[in-house]
Amino acid sequence: MDAIDRDILAILQREGRISATDLAQRVGLSLSPCHRRLKALEDAGVIRGYRADVDPVLVDRTFTTLVSVTLQSVAPGDFMEFEQQLAGMPEVVQAQRLFGNPDYMLHVVCKDLQAFQELTDTRLSALPGVQRLDSTLVMKDVVPYRGLPLSGSR
Using one digit for the tens of pLDDT, what is the confidence trace for 76-109? Predict the structure, then answer.
């Protein structure tokens, strides 16, 4: 991956719907070489997909929490079973396994407090091996997700 590939990725993270023609112009390539690079980045799995950045207010999903999860056991099978069941919960928009305590950090988005309480009481706490759940309410996004730092490499 060279500086042009990194520039392509940086632009796509900010402007996912940019036309191939505009992208090629912005990185200083003609259309065909730019398209070949883009296809190679997709085929290699560097670009994992394209998605819309949805405003949570306009879709009534404004209750955001960070949930730390501590498991009772640290056996490999326990982690795998927990992660498999967690993957089926659409309210968990991001989950990260951590070193140390807690074992996981979940980013959870729901409609409101009642929906979060129901999720916690009936589904999160029922996941295999859960010993403890701690929740922190998100007041506001100060720096929303903005993609990986890639530009400026040329």
Answer: 788 898 999 999 999 999 999 999 999 999 999 9
- Specify the pTM: 0.85
Q: Please say whether the beta carbons of 80 and 87 come within 8 A.
A: no
Per-residue three-class SS string for the chain: CCHHHHHHHHHHHHCCCCCHHHHHHHHCCCHHHHHHHHHHHHHCCCCCCCCCCCCCCCCCCCEEEEEEEEECCCCHHHHHHHHHHHCCCCCEEEEEECCCCCCEEEEEEECCHHHHHHHHHHHHCCCCCEEEEEEEECCCCCCCCCCCCCCCCC
pLDDT tens per residue, range 108-119: 999 999 999 999
Per the CB < 8 A criterion, the answer to whether 62 and 113 are in contact is no
Please give the span between the terminal C-alpha atoms of the chain, in angstroms, as a whole number: 12
